[in-house]
């Protein structure tokens, strides 16, 4: 059997909506024949830093190792400086951005619309398919 590709993924999300992160990471974990390494910073695994500049550098380092960045595209993204930073960093590094529209949401923040390589619906098959198609 051929070896599986290991996708290196950062799931950008707001800690206030950590359940969205948990859902997406659960989908990826539960997908048969799908291997991934999580470069995200969930509320359960915060980075240890001494200031904003160090935090930015650690996030840059994580994104630099990624095959793609998944942006959970709730409207809260429009008000998150950190998610803006992660989008700008991914764009500057040429990392594919997959926007995921949360269940029942009708609008997507302009920042995501303008920078995502693809925007997909809230389901596991769409997320896995987008990673397989867009990851570098």
The largest β sheet comes out as: 5 strands, parallel
Strand arrangement in the largest pleated sheet: 2-1-3-4-5
In the predicted model, the low-confidence regions spanning at least 5 consecutive residues are none
Mean pLDDT figure: 93
**What is the radius of gyration computed over CA atoms, rounded to a whole number of angstroms?**
14 Å
Using the 3D structure, state the CATH architecture: 3-Layer(aba) Sandwich
| Basic shape | globular
Number of domains: 1
Distance between the termini: 23 Å
CATH class label: Alpha Beta
How many DSSP-defined strands? 5
Based on secondary structure, the structural category is: alpha/beta
CATH superfamily caption: Hypothetical protein MTH538
CATH fold description: Rossmann fold
Query: What is the helix content?
Result: 40-55%
- Percent of residues in β-strands: 15-25%
Notable characteristics:
136 residues, alpha/beta, 5 strands, 17% strand, globular
